[in-house]
Amino acid sequence: MPSxxxxxxxxxxxxxxxxGVIVVAGLIYTGIWYYLAGExxxxxxxxxxxxxxNGVRANCEEPEIHGYPFRLGVRCRSVFYEDVKEGVSFRAExxxxxxxxxxxxxxxxxxxxxxxxxxxxxxxxxxxxxxxGLSAQLDRPLPSRVSIAGSNIQLFPDDAEDGPVAQMSxxxxxxxxxxxxxxxxxxxHDLVITDGVAPNIPALEGRAMVxxxxxxxMLENRNLDLRGHKGQIEEMVIGVVGKKAAISLSGPMExxxxxxxxxQLRIKVDDPVGTARILADVFPSAADPIRSATGxxxxxxxxxxxxxxxxxxxxxxxxxxxxxxxx
Length: 327
Fold this sequence. Notes:
Structural class: alpha+beta
Order of helices and strands: HEEEEEEEEEEEEEEHEEEHHEEE
Largest sheet: 20 strands, antiparallel
Number of strands: 20
Number of helices: 4
Helix content: 10-25%
Radius of gyration: 27 Å
Strand content: over 45%
């Protein structure tokens, strides 16, 4: 009992020391955060300066560093990117990036809807969505992984008076480096394309995984021309929502210097009769060969058959189905 009065001041001193250490640590951490924020601000300015050359324009309007205390990122009032050489442009009203302090290489990106998009040989398009998120694992010279996921995605023509030309309830796209190859994976649900773009297409759902040989080098060189390149369809499944009709594909593909496709694919058709009926409606000019192939597919049941593409000419077994124009 006599020692109790002495313990009071001792505990008080310890509490004061602990409080002081916490305050000092907080001040040091805050200083480090603002130092990193300044470094990030300078890197953004340098990156934009470096990007604006060789026919490329890029801009982040009113960049603002945000995320204190545990995250660090850049917020732009609007963003713009244009590559005159590739005929690609992108504009968004607002965008922001963020990364956790303890894992700065993993970056999350949020872009506000809508986005104005221009691609080669297409009119200007507007992309809208309810939710959309992007994440990337940064590496040099390109991210090692990129993922995009969204819901209620709609694609409008520039005038946007007649409603969307395509929409889907949900979709995802993932890309990762496989040494110098690029692996792409995607899923989509309730994809609806209007008759003005392609008539008689029912609501679709599916998934795909594709390997593009030397795809990383293509991105590094900003050359997205597929001519002279090879790849592998590891899996591709496209089906009609609410029905058994579906087509599964896998196998190697290549595009020659003239843009013609050549490949040897394994194909399986679920509900051949129903699938053939839908394909005949979508491709009326190829209705007769499609119906000719239906009997063979029905007889084979769930077995896979060979779909050959020789310089754009498509054959199911020995039955010619039509041609694919050069890309």
